[in-house]
Design a protein that fits this description.
With 664 residues, the chain is an alpha/beta fold. It contains 21 helices and 38 strands. The strands form five sheets. It has a twelve-stranded parallel sheet, with no helix packed on it. The protein has an eleven-stranded parallel sheet with strand order 1-4-7-10-13-16-19-24-27-30-33, with no helix packed on it. Strand 37 (335-337) and strand 38 (342-345) form a beta hairpin. Helix 18 crosses helix 20 and helix 18 (604-610) packs parallel to helix 21.
Amino acid sequence: MVKPQDPGTLLAQGAVVARLGTLLALNGASGVTLQGLTFADTTWDGSALTLTNAPANSIAGNRFVDAGTAMTLTGSSGNVIEANRMEHLGAGGIKVAYGSNGNRISANSIDGIGEVLKDVAGIQLYGTSGTLISGNDIRNSPRYGISIKNWDGATVNTDTVVEYNRIYNTMTETADGGAIEMLGRSNVDTRTTIRGNDIRNVGGLATDGSGWLDRQKSFGIYLDDMANGVAVRDNFIQNTGWASVFIHGGDSNSVTNNFATLSNPRERFIRLEWVPSAGTIGLLANNSVTGNVISSATGVDYWEFWTPGSYTVTNNLLQGVRGLTGGDTVSSGLFANPAAGDFRLGSGAAAGLGIHDLDWARMGSAPLTVPGIPSPGAGGGGSGSGTTPATGTSTASSGQAFSPLAYIASYGDLSAAFGTDAAAGAAHYAAMGRAEGRTVTFDPLAYVASYGDLANAFGTNGDAGAAHYITMGRAEGRAVSFDPLAYLASYGDLAAAFGTDRTSAEIHYITNGRAEGRTVSFDPLAYLASYGDLAAAFGTDRTSAEIHYITNGRAEGRTVTFNPTAYLAANSDLAAAFGTDTTRAELHYLTNGRTEGRTTGFNASAYLAANADVAAATGGDLTAAMRHYIVFGRQEGRALSPASAHRAAELASGSGMLAAAGMG
């Protein structure tokens, strides 16, 4: 029996009862390309796509939604799994198992897994070798982001590379796990590399019988049960439960040049602990933790050791916490501007320790190798300085894959032809749209965020938003008005949390921001008009302005100083041409007014002082005063200041005297 929270919505939308666990199976097939397909509505315990003894296939640019596991590979090697979008899954994302070697898993977007089964991962391996897991965006998992399981001799994983993935909000409903977890019970040298990943918000939820335990036994990178031979380097780790990195009984692991921020008293950077139940092989040996950058807000020691065996922990760069050995260096200003979400290396002491900055631009993205698939999404802003257009930060765009419904919604002719037939939209793009130069321009979540009724009805279901626009919204004259980057730029806490991630901004506004009374206040054109270097670099490009402010401008102390209403009031010809249209004023200044040397200031206070009736009517509001002058005062010949009003009165008086003397 199902008792819906909102029966009316269920009755209006209907329900789907899944019958099949697998929609497509490649058994012994090779050289197959699956592209632009949607796999939906399977049983929660099924796998929408399976590859069994199926080598050298390409699974790219597809969507998996409302399924169990998105795909499972068994004995299937040399496959490319690229730029797929996976969301609302009952179980996990991609499972690669038993003799599946040399597979490439890159640039996929995986969001909202484990909605039924909780012991899941966005990407899980067991019994594989030579797997590359690169540039994926994995969010909102009840347990792992990436899990590499070695339970026994049949499930050993070797030569795995896990690099430049963005992994946010894991361990939301379980404990004893991590954003990246590796189990090593066979006690072999795994020759694994974990590098360049962006890991944030690792929860950890458990109960002791008396209540819930939050942030319980959760880790950023968890090398569990004798995981050996792992190089952990160049990762960014923030907001975990117990430790950024936990080595549990492993040997010959190195932890180098990672950046971490510690924010709760239970949290450490490194935890070393033996595994008593494993006997002597559970003892640690030859682990090194060197050259890491660790900033603590709690002052608690950055290490925690429980029979740690032989280790080297030294030459780490610290802030807010003491060193373990004389080789550690305590400094300040480790990051460029952490309050603004800028964690680029900022301390000069780093060079002396051989520490280098992270490759922020590569996090959450990977080059596409399958010809003809739509880009999984443009990156957000860069973490560089100056006016160079941004190219990618630690919190760049989530990189969603191609959405057929968004593609249909982008074009009136496609909407008329296909309606909400996603398969027809995907087929059109593959057959004709790409060659015609068509792209996806419609943003479903921004559309939903633009209207309260849609947000209440659809929440963060982007496909429902696109379908509404196709079937009703276009005809109703609805349009996208919500600007996710301007929303992020309007709030420092959001910019710090999400960087330039448009999707996260849209989801936040729909789920929280609207209810909190948040609004978009950042004006990108006014920001450009406030600085000559930005105007010269970006012209009237709103997106570049927003990205620059989020990634650089706020940290540089830049603010919006250009007032388009004042610009109109100061230039009568513009006021006559544009009225109070501030957008046209900004565009004029950026394209013409700046080079013409136009005046941009208007003294609204003086105008009110000279016109008591206007001051009374506007209540002293300076913006209202400027608007009054643009619409009325200019044509009425109103004085701009008390001095000019006095001179006008004197002239009027003098003219009267001359007239009385017969000289006027």
